[in-house]
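Protein Record: Sequence and Backbone Structure Tokens
======================================================

Structure line: whole-number tokens from a learned vocabulary of local backbone shapes, matched to residues.

Purpose: to set a sequence beside its fold so the mapping can be learned.

___
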Amino acid sequence: MSALDPIDRNILRLLRLDARMSTVKIAEEVGLSPSTCQRRIKLMEHSGVIRGYTALVDHSARDAAMAVIINITLERQTEDYLNRFEAAVRKHPEIQECYLMTGGADYLLRVEVETPAEFERIHTEILSTMPGVLRIHSSFSIRNVLANRRRAR
């Protein structure tokens, strides 16, 4: 797929706000016919721009899960170290997000746990055993300020 135009970016913005928004509603918002809008969405899906759809879960409904933000510093920042670390991260579904970063830490990870003991297990059995890890700095979230953004529109 070629570069995204402003209409494609607007479609993506609307889908990020509500992935269940009807094609008719999206088309109306971006000024296209429903069939043209659907064709653009399908093109973005087939080209990999849209990789999938997901459900956002209200954590208050889940035994008070806590997000833990983890900064990882590697011993070295060589391509080999980065590739080995990223391959190891992909093997652990407990890690919901992983970003290569600029600044003080090399990676920022996010995991969700229900208890500090669950995080201790992840720290001991997973994070501490990953290749090339020099330092792990973890912070527990108190509350997701943007969790209800869609409802507040």
